[in-house]
Design goal:
428 residues, alpha/beta, TIM Barrel, eight-stranded parallel beta barrel, 40% helix, 14% strand
Amino acid sequence: MTHSNRRLVLNVNVLDVGISPGAWTLGVAPNAFLDASHFVRIAQAAERGTLDGFFLADSPGFWENPKVKPTRALEPTAVLATVAAHTTNLGLIGTASTTFNEPYELAERFLSLDVASGGRVAWNVVTTYSPVVGANFGLQALPDREERYARAAEFVDVVTELWESALTGVPVDHRGPRFEVSGRLAVAPSAQGYPALIQAGGSPAGRELAGRTAHGVFTAELTLAAGIEHYRYVKDAAARAGRDPDQVKILPGLITVIGSTEREAIERHESLRAHVPADFGAERLSGTLGVDVTTLDWDEPIPAHVLAVPEDLDAYQGSLGFRESVVGLAQEGNLSIRQLLRSLNGSGGHRAIIGTPEQVADTIEEWFLAGAADGFNLMPDALPTGLDEFVDHVVPILRRRGLFRHEYSEKTLRGRFGATLPALHAVG
């Protein structure tokens, strides 16, 4: 079977030792996420499967309860620099917040990594909505959503201007409402000009930013219909911004739990959550819904008013994208809080496939051909074993179906995303 010239993009989202809260029980040391060799092992498996990118999330503060689930610790660009030295083709995608960084420093850091890796880097742009982070930076509270996205929009513009200065040699003279930057980067342009941009916000402002600037969009849709709707929204936003929509890749998160039979996959999934307390994820779900779920009856369907759109969106501090996905899941199944927590399994709101390699490949093909996704950010249940299962058993199926490459043909991450490389200029 062959398909059109559309490129299926597959990244692995490396969440510590895996997305499952019980991942540390499956053949890996609980503190492996503190060991750079753990990430190198995962990256080399991804490159063996010709995956597009190695994706690192980040939140500059504690995110999960470390007594239940190991939490990220090492700064992403430090990990990516190590991974770059042990791989040849794999893309390197690092998350950094526009709320808690400065444009010049971030532009220099990511372009330096891009040069050192041969043009394989992308920056995942986030604004940070976690309230636990603010205190680490001396803030009583995070800026509201409107301000975070206004800062993010200007931040991305400044970083891009600085990266362009590496190409042209023309100094930046930016005078905006939030940033004033004069000067140019001393770093040379990379093999792809400068890093690609990934965006992960699901709010209307986030989707507009993605359409205007991003080469890849990390989404959290749980159903095919929601995926198609979001896909069209962002592609239309790109067209309104004067961009080619084909150069914006929509990449939902996809949790994979793989077994040789469906029963084996289910048993693996159950074993990975055997030790997890019933209330795991309750604090995160409270933030997502904007309601303290401990005040609700956990065995009755969630009240309609809890699932309704918040009356004051400005006061709501969680992720609107995750909220939309989680609410849709709860409404579709008329779920209780207990059932919803079990369904989410600590994922926050990403689609999960628990089944055989064929079932995983079927989902990827269905979403890709239906126009709900250009690819996926894979979130294996446990690392590195879950990624090994995908590379060894799902990738061959995708190749046989004509959906995925047999070998790398593009050296840069931009090239692999089908994104235009900036024109190289003589630097003065």
